[in-house]
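Troubleshooting log. The previous run stalled partway through. Resubmitting the same four chains, unchanged.
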Amino acid sequence: MARTANQSIDLYQTLIDSGLPARPARALAGIDHRVVDVEPKRPFREMGTPRDEVMFVVSGLLCKYKTDGTGRRQIVGLRFPGEGILPSKGLRDFGIQAIVPSRVMVGSAADLEPIMKAHPEIAGFFFELVQRETRINYEWLVSTGRRDSTARVAHLLLETAVRANSDPVTDGLANPFTQQQIADITGQTSVNVNRVFADLERQGLIRREGRRVFFEDMAELERVASFHSEYLQ
Amino acid sequence: MARTANQSIDLYQTLIDSGLPARPARALAGIDHRVVDVEPKRPFREMGTPRDEVMFVVSGLLCKYKTDGTGRRQIVGLRFPGEGILPSKGLRDFGIQAIVPSRVMVGSAADLEPIMKAHPEIAGFFFELVQRETRINYEWLVSTGRRDSTARVAHLLLETAVRANSDPVTDGLANPFTQQQIADITGQTSVNVNRVFADLERQGLIRREGRRVFFEDMAELERVASFHSEYLQ
DNA sequence: CGGTTGTTTGAACTGATTCAATCTGTGTGG
DNA sequence: CCACACAGATTGAATCAGTTCAAACAACCG
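Second attempt completed without errors. Output:
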């Protein structure tokens, strides 16, 4: 049960920033937990295992993924620092993997329960977290269902910039994804994602320096992506 | 505030069936509410309106939908009888419409709050409801992102049969959707949905009598759809 | 019966996939 | 510091799944 004051403070601050009052935030951040370093490329949690853990991402980036009948992968959710994966009854119907090397706080659902009883605000807090994820999910569904490939990629970039809390115009977005991962999120092939990136750059909407992406024309980018940030709260 | 004993008993029973204990179920079903008849084709709730209502579908079928930049519609969720739409902070980022004529119980979030305080089990109950919807959402994301058009339609039919609680082999599934609506769910065009239906029938996987669909080869249908019912609980 | 909504079909087209090859950057060991 | 390996990015050509447009057909309903 490794725990450092530093990491707990990070989580506490994150919870506060997410709108949880101080007392329940302290209780939640103080829960007995491990801090795990997760490497990309190897599965962290497999599909079909029990969902008896609370997780909060301290740093890095996790994804939830599923696989269709023919083995093609679809990433169904992302978890940025401060976001969590809550426990539930039954088994996990998704796998969890890191996109970049990540640090994750992992506690047990059993330890969480008494704290939720003692601090009823936590239930409402979790509820709002889940609602936000649902809104993101809906937006992803619109992307994969109705937007063309350019709009999908642009939308993901804009969403990532907001969720990663970066300033993509001046600093550029430190794009954490490989083109294959973007394909797995947006429901395309990596080949096409590559062509979309080239298009976006040719049109002057973005500029690339290695993985880093600068948003050269934010307004136009948001227009082609039909991106409206309100769903991120 | 129209309310009949009959309808309240329906909701009560539904809540019980969904796993809520008797006392909180009675309290929840007894909340002050209207029973609204919703007609298809005209919007019931518009996007951008406050999410200050609890709704439970008594009969019929509702959908949540969004629209992409070019006005193309994507249905992002369905609500079968016994399923609900919970309140949240902020504005609705989706519209609500009926697929078939529906009866909906509508209460106010303000009335819900004291009842949730008095019956803490309700929070957990709601949480599990939302988790189930999230699992369905993930499955839809895999469909629109990775499955081919045949698998998408087949998957929707199988999911609908389970959620509508019908026996699609002997009785047939009373398919509530127009082909345009199936297209709006699966991210296709109605023309292609039509061709997929014809294909499925030609392959002997389904048989159609008007809107009604009989599943002639359940095992094969589940295989082509990569459908595993566990995510529906 | 006429109007409306939904289904079916055909033909042309196109966005995205597939397959395959090449290129680039980064890290590793000698 | 170079040679090599490896992962990821890029490009081209052929193919195909699904769209688009347009028209015909069927079912339903007042």
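Takeaways: Residues 1-7 of chain A have pLDDT under 50 and may be disordered. Helices of chain A lie at 5-17, 22-29, 109-118, 121-146, 149-163, 179-186, 190-202, 218-225.
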